[in-house]
Structure formats: structure tokens, C-alpha cells
Amino acid sequence: MVNLRYHIVSIAAVFLALAIGLALGSTFVDSVLVSNLESRVDHLQADTEEAIDRRAEAEAARDEAEAAREEALASVDAARSERFEVEDLVRPYLPQGRLSGTTTLIVAPESTDTDAVVAIRARLAVTDTQLGGVLRLSDDLRLYDPEVRQRIAEAFSLAGDSRNAVRRALRFLVPQALLRPSEAGSSRALDADVNAITDAGALDGFSRGFLLAPRTRTALTLLRDLGLVTHDGTGAVALHLLGGEGLRLVVVTDAAAAGLNEDFVFDLLMVIADNGYPGSGVIVEVPALDAAGIGYGAVLERVRSDPLLAASFSSVDGVDTFSGDLALLVALEDLPEIRHFSSVDPAHGLGPS
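^ thats the sequence. predicted structure below, dont judge the formating
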């Protein structure tokens, strides 16, 4: 016979075990859950504090940036005020309205920094001088290439194409085309160059003056057609119309063009001075491209060491600075009086040579 009491006790034991298990399990789960929640809260608290710190740093950086901005604006205002004071001081000396009646032609080797040449042209454009454009010179004008000499001799109908003959012809023709266009090519002024140009027909139309040659044909246009010069005449006087006593030359060159300077540029300027036209231009030195200032100052030193050049042409460097820019304008205005300005050589300032 089944003992009822035994079954009751067994059932009670089962329920008691379940109760104990549920109690223990619930306590363990609650502990793990609480631990996880506390960990999350700690992380959130740390993230919040970090975000607060970052916000504080950002606000501090913003305040510093705002302070720096205010300081920069104050500095700009001070610089602007100082610039206006300087401009007011020097404005009476600027050649605005005092270069009228002149034509200014920029002459530069092709290798010379284009940006520097363009900047000088832009500066001249706001004066009252008439722009003659930019005449860029090829290094072939050194005349060492026989083919180049032959092409020049054929174009100008020269009797010979030796370097000496071609050089002497150009020494005669180019200065006259620039400064005495009405006489350019006239055989009456050949003088010592007669050995290079041996007969009346040697220079074709040039030897007989412009009356027998097209008016658009000059020594400069022929050199352009030969590819030995280029002329940027945009908004300027056409190449064949350039020339005359009102012409002012701004020769822009650098130490890297020393060969062309010696073989053509300085030689041409000396002839101009010898022909009775000293004070007709300004020689400007700019830094050589890709030379990091190597040789800078050599052009001015060369010009000033030559008695004829130093006495016949003004010279300026540092035209990318306010003082150099002003010096160029003053030097142009004061022509034919000669002035020399150097930011390289402290012994030279803007003043008579």
C-alpha cells in the first residue's frame, strides 16, 4: 500500500528545491545584470566627462583663434594706415602725369623672368607714358650660329655674313630704328660701319632710307620675321611705328643672360650713347630664374663699372619692392638725368650717379 505521507514529503521536497533554486538563480542574475549596468554607467560617465573636456578645449581654441583674428585685423589696419601714410608722403614724387609725351619700350632677353617683365609692364600701364610693348631678344642675337648670320645677311642684303659684319650692321640699324626712324638705314650716317656695308645696295631699302621701303618694314620687324625678337604689342604701339626721341627704354635683364648682355644688349646701349642719346633708358636687374639669387647684383655692378654705361643709363634693382618700384618710376621721370638705385649695394641709393 502506497504511503501517502511519503509522497507528500517528496512533493514538498521538490517544491522546496525549486524555490531554493529560483532564489539562488535570481540572486546571481541580478548580480550580473547590476554589474553590467554599473559598467555601462561608468563608461557613459567617462564618455560624458571626455566630451565635456573636448568641448572646453574647443571653446578655448575658438577663443584663441578669435583673439588671433582680432590681432591680425588690428595688424592689417595698422599696416593699411601706415601704407596710406607712406603713399601720401611719396605721392608727390610719383610720375603720374609727368611721363606724358613719352613712349616706353621694355627690352628683355627671352630667358628673363616673364612674371617680372609683366609686373613692370603693368606698373608702367598706370602711368601716362605710352606703352611700346615688350621686345624679347633671342639668345641667337649673340651671332655665333653661322646659319643665323646667313639669314640676317640675306634679309638685310648685307655684303657678307661674318660675325663682325652682321654685328656692325645691327649696331647701325637697330639704334636708328629705335631713336631716329626717319633716318634709319640712311647711308650718310654709316661712318666706321662702311667697311661692313660695302655698297649702296648692300642694305637694300635700308641703305636708301625708308622712302624706297614699305613703311611697315623696319630693322625691328625684319628681326621679328627672322624669329630673333618677339614683340608683345597688345594694347601698345605697333613695332613698325616705334621710335623717336620720345622713346624711353626699360632694359630688364639678369645675370643668367650675361652672354647676350655682353654680345648684344650692352653693345647696343653703348652705340646708342655714342650716337648722342645718353639718358634714353633705365637698366633694370631682376633675379635670374632657378638661380636662388646667384649672381644677383652682377648686372648693376657691370653697368656701373663701365664709364659709358654708368654715365648714359640709369639702373635699378629690387623692383618687386615698394622702394624699387618707386625708384624705377622716378628714374624714368628724371631722364635724361641719370640715377642709380641698388638694394644690393648700400653705397648706392636713389640719386645722381
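The chain has two domains: 1-93, 99-352.
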